[in-house]
Amino acid sequence: MPTGWTDIKKRWAILMSSIDRKTRLLLSIWTIALFVALGCVSGSSGPYPTYAYPQLPVAVSDPHEVWVKCSSLGAPPDAIVSKMYCVDEGAYFELRQFVIELDSMVRKYENTIKEINSLE
Questions:
Q1: For residue 63, which of 83, 93, 86 has the smallest C-alpha distance?
Q2: Which of 46, 47, 66, 104 is the S-S candidate for 59 at Cβ 3.0 to 4.6 Å?
């Protein structure tokens, strides 16, 4: 061992012998807590942001309540419309807003991925 290492080891032994057991335990707990607090960082405070998934509209979360055959809304049974599904106007705008928000989120993540890849 290098001489500097033995000197550090001796000083550490002197320091630890002068501190009682409870104080050493408390010092160890505080040291571990400090390392955990400084070492663990949540994803939102990291270098790249995370985005919340948009709230699911009823047309996606419960489609049987919203999507109905157009023929049940009064179209003639022999019309081509009878094979199509229709949705309420309110549910349509809710679904449209969801798609816009989802597209925005995907574009943000695509830009972040491009940024990360450019660093490599």
A1: 86
A2: 66
The answer to whether 32 touches 24, Cβ cutoff 8 Å, is no
Which element (helix H / strand E) includes 85?
Answer: strand 85-86
Whether residue 45 is predicted with pLDDT greater than 60 in this model: the reply is: no
Strands 68-69 and 85-86: antiparallel
One DSSP character per residue, 48-92 reads S---PPPPPPHHHHSHHHH-EEGGGGT--TTSGGGGSEE--HHHH
Whole-model pTM above 0.85?
no
Pick 25 or 89 by higher pLDDT.
89
Please name which of 58, 73, 67, 66 lies closest in space to residue 85, comparing C-alpha atoms.
Answer: 67
Tokens of 114: 């491009």
Q: What is the dihedral of CA 99, 101, 107, 109, to 10 degrees?
A: -120
pLDDT tens digit sequence for 56-105: 898 888 888 888 877 766 666 665 666 778 888 888 899 999 999 999 99
The residue type of 54 is: P
Structure tokens at 81: 């419309």
